[in-house]
Amino acid sequence: MFYLGRRRHCRAWIPPGYYIEYGGQFENQQRATRRLLLIVPLAVGLIFVLLYLTFSSVKQALLVVGNIPFALVGGIAALWARGMNLNLSALSLCSAWPC
């Protein structure tokens, strides 16, 4: 569970001894986000190593890996153009498959 604690800016009055916990879909999204923060850099590093082994050149491997942020921006722009929300599944699709 995601523990919020007692926040002063919360609009609802919470009596002493009570606290707020978020679960369900929010908890699953938080867990998946933490997992992606570990997996995505590892995957990009592995792709860089494979590109270096293929091209035998750091410059060419960095050229290919350096295009990942542009693909991510393009994917977010495509979501915005279609009026869709940026969620975890859309973000993982943009990082795994060139948008």
List the helices and strands and how they pair.
Blueprint lengths: L1 E4 L14 E3 L2 H31 L2 H8 L2 H15 L5 H9 L3
Antiparallel strand pairs: 1-2
Helix pairs in contact: 1-2, 3-4
How many beta-strand segments? 2
Structural class: mainly alpha
Ends: how far apart?
33 Å
Largest sheet: 2 strands, antiparallel
State the order of secondary-structure elements, H for helix, E for strand.
Answer: EEHHHH
Question: In oligomeric terms, what are we looking at?
Answer: single chain
The strands making up the biggest β-sheet line up spatially as: 1-2
Could you explain how this protein is built, in words?
It is a single chain. The protein has four helices and two strands. It is mainly alpha-helical and 99 residues long. Helix 1 runs antiparallel to helix 2 (58-65) and helix 3 crosses helix 4 (88-96). The protein has one domain (2-96).
For the structure shown, list the relevant keywords.
99 residues, mainly alpha, two-stranded antiparallel ribbon, 4 helices, 64% helix
Characterize this entry briefly.
The chain has helices spanning 25-55, 58-65, 68-82, 88-96; strands at residues 2-5, 20-22. The chain is mainly α and 99 residues long.
